[in-house]
Design goal:
The chain is an alpha+beta fold and about 375 residues long. The chain has three domains: about 25-190, 2-Layer Sandwich (Heat Shock Protein 90), CATH 3.30.565; about 205-265; about 275-380, no CATH class. Helix content is about 30%, strand content about 20%.
Length: about 375
């Protein structure tokens, strides 16, 4: 089936070319700074920050803590004391290849910092597009990775004594704008990280609807149903039902109706995850701290959520917004500085009402934005620094 689909796709591309159209595969969008910016949703001037934060998020998810620092010539490193990146050098190189498919493990829903699967492809693409360099030190190996125009990544491996954790050293070239504060997002992510993993359990069947669960099974391909369901909460109880109905079946062979039956069986084997099982991020930023816990229901799925933010009030120099007080909100999820207008649906700008609604607790005295915050906002708006 897969071969037939590929043949149809290739035939379609050939027909399009014969008709005078131009065909471009998705992975080729990672070869230029402009298209990487479009894919990531970040202005070109902030790509250095994004790359540093992507690697930092991965390190935090792997070990719960990490360190970042600058190297010469605008380089930087991210290192942790986690289990390291498993696999042979060629497998690690494939992980940092921007031609590889979307990382299928991201299809399994967990409350982690990233869920797109594009992070390392953005990193590899930024290195290639800017003519930079990338070194990964893990499991006693120093891997010098070189992303190629073809989308593949070449690797040269040498033995080292270091066997604990992972260290990534990265340099980006002049094609990506210089930013003296490019580690700001990474450092903020570290300062906001909790002392424990966000979640220590397995994925839950209650976090999927029929469509997303079906796609999970298709992404598992030849793995058996029993093997895939070992990753789910309540798998010990679920084993008996799988043995009766899906013995020896591969996950990718199930049709949509069978996937729905399996999802219902999995839900009957466990209770929904309580929001209290998620660990709050620590209060690592100055200002007032706000949090919210609850369960987000969408169609037939329900997921616990945790929202944690730090707020600081500031004045707006713009005459147009001077009459509308704002809050400066630094989101711990996206590490972006946002200006939130304190205006309700009815047009009221009563700060006390906002506080009573539980959105935040703020100081009555408004503090001006720092030069660093102003420059960050100017870069986001595509303007030169002040």
């Amino acid at each position: 089936m897969l071969r037939r689909n590929r043949a149809v796709e290739q035939r379609g591309q050939t027909d399009a070319a014969d008709n005078g159209q131009y065909v471009r595969e998705d992975w080729t969008l990672f070869r230029s700074v402009r298209t990487i910016s479009q894919l990531s949703g970040v202005p070109p001037g902030l790509l250095r920050r994004l790359v540093a934060k992507e690697l930092t998020d991965n390190a935090l998810d792997a070990s719960g803590a990490c360190r970042v620092g600058k190297l010469r010539n605008d380089g930087f490193y991210v290192e942790d004391d986690g289990p390291g990146i498993g696999g042979e050098p060629e497998e690690v190189a494939r992980l940092f290849s921007f031609r590889r498919p979307l990382v299928s493990s991201k299809v399994k829903r967990l409350p982690m910092r990233g869920a797109l699967g594009n992070g390392l492809r953005v990193v590899a693409g930024a290195v290639f597009a800017s003519r930079g360099s990338l070194v990964v030190i893990t499991n006693g190996m120093k891997l010098e990775l070189s992303p190629q125009e073809s989308g593949e990544t070449l690797v040269r491996a040498t033995r080292l004594k270091r066997t604990v954790g992972t260290r990534i050293e990265l340099y980006l070239g002049d094609a990506i704008s210089h930013d003296p504060d490019f580690l700001e997002w990474a450092e903020t992510a570290i300062s906001c990280a909790g002392d424990e993993p966000i979640y220590q359990g397995k994925t839950s069947a209650w976090w999927y609807d029929s469509d997303s669960f079906f796609e999970l099974l298709k992404a598992a391909r030849s793995r058996t149903v029993r093997d895939v369901m070992q990753d789910f909460d309540g798998s010990s109880v679920l084993d008996r039902g799988i043995a009766e109905r899906f013995r020896g079946r591969s996950a990718g062979s199930l049709n949509y109706e069978e996937a729905e039956d399996l999802l219902g069986l999995a839900r009957s084997s466990c209770n929904p995850v309580r929001p209290g099982r998620l660990t709050l991020l620590k209060k690592g930023l100055p200002g007032s701290y706000a949090k919210a816990l609850g369960t987000l229901s969408s169609r037939s799925a329900g997921s616990p959520f945790l929202s944690s933010s730090t707020f600081r009030s500031r004045t707006c120099p713009s005459r147009r917004t001077a009459r509308n007080p704002t809050l400066s909100c630094f989101s711990t999820k996206s590490a972006r500085l946002l200006a939130l207008p304190l205006r309700s649906v009815s047009g009221t700008t009563d700060r006390a009402m906002i506080e009573r609604a539980g959105y935040c607790r703020t100081s009555r005295k408004a503090a001006p934005a720092t030069r660093r915050e102003q420059n960050t906002q100017r870069i986001c708006d595509g303007l030169p620094k002040s």
